Amino acid sequence: MKSAKARSRPAPKYRRIVLKLSGEALQNSKTGDPIDQGILSRVCRQIKEIHALGVQIGVVVGGGNIFRGLTGERDGSTDRATGDYMGMLATVINGLALMNGLEKMGVQVRVMTAIPMDKVAEPYILRRALRHLEKGLVVIFVAGTGNPYFSTDTTAALRASELGAEILMKATKVDGVYNKDPLKFPDAKKYQTLSYLDALRERLNIMDSTAFSLCLDNNIPILVFDLDAPDSILKAALGQSSGTIVK
After folding, report:
1. Could you tell me the CA-to-CA distances from 121 to 95, 97, 124, 186, 198 in Å, in that order?
2. pLDDT digits (tens, 9 = 90+) for 5-42
3. Which of 94, 97, 104, 222 gives 20 to 30 Å between its CA and that of 41?
4. What is the pLDDT of residues 119-158, one digit of tens each?
């Protein structure tokens, strides 16, 4: 017979997800610290909570809190390819920080990298990643796709497609997708649900075109939600998010 605690546990809507975290989401906007320990702990706690519900979780993390290749190209400090490789290495730092935070909470984690660095993380091998997920480990994917000119949004879409994820959850600084910038236009309209074709037609800035096309071609729904909202990752996994779903 199930215990009262087990019976009271909410049922997750999804069994396998890919969570996309931007590097900026881990940054303290007031102090400028690239990794805020309070934010990191909050994110790790929620990942632990949905992991305890039996959800298989892959995490793709960006590196924009440390270095962004496009910025280096724009200001002339680095060429695009070099800048992108620097950005990929920044994602490794963030991935290791997430791993450390989760392991301190008793969650088993594997970090898998698209750029071989065997002293730091496992190489990304699809079948091995699937085995880790099936065994109940959280898998953090770092170093992007291993190639310049591809964003971590594209990495998230690629990993979600390869792993057969039921949904790609993109945690951002806004609570969904709007028809225009809600920070600049008070009359901006928020979408609850949106089709891929409408998003393309209205040129809404959800992901870069390569990432969006991968999700479209492989029928991966995208949930865009506010990371800063209370328990936002947990609510997303339970199907209770107030964000926008593109499908």
Report:
1. 10, 12, 9, 45, 40
2. 545 668 899 999 999 999 988 988 888 889 999 999 99
3. 222
4. 999 999 999 999 999 999 999 999 999 999 999 999 999 9
**Which residue type does 49 have?**
E
Q: What angle do CA 245, 66, 39 make, to 5 degrees?
A: 55
* pTM for the structure as a whole: 0.91
Can you tell me the distance from the alpha carbon of 60 to that of 74, in angstroms, rounded to the nearest whole number? 25
The residue behind tokens 């926008």 is 244
CA pair distance 13, 6, nearest whole angstrom: 17
Question: Residues with Cβ < 8 Å from 99, sequence gap 6 or more?
Answer: 109, 111, 140
Give the count of alpha carbons within 13 A of 50, CB side only. 29
Rounded distance between C-alpha atoms, residue 29 and residue 32, angstroms? 5
Topology classification of domain 4-246:
Carbamate kinase (3.40.1160)
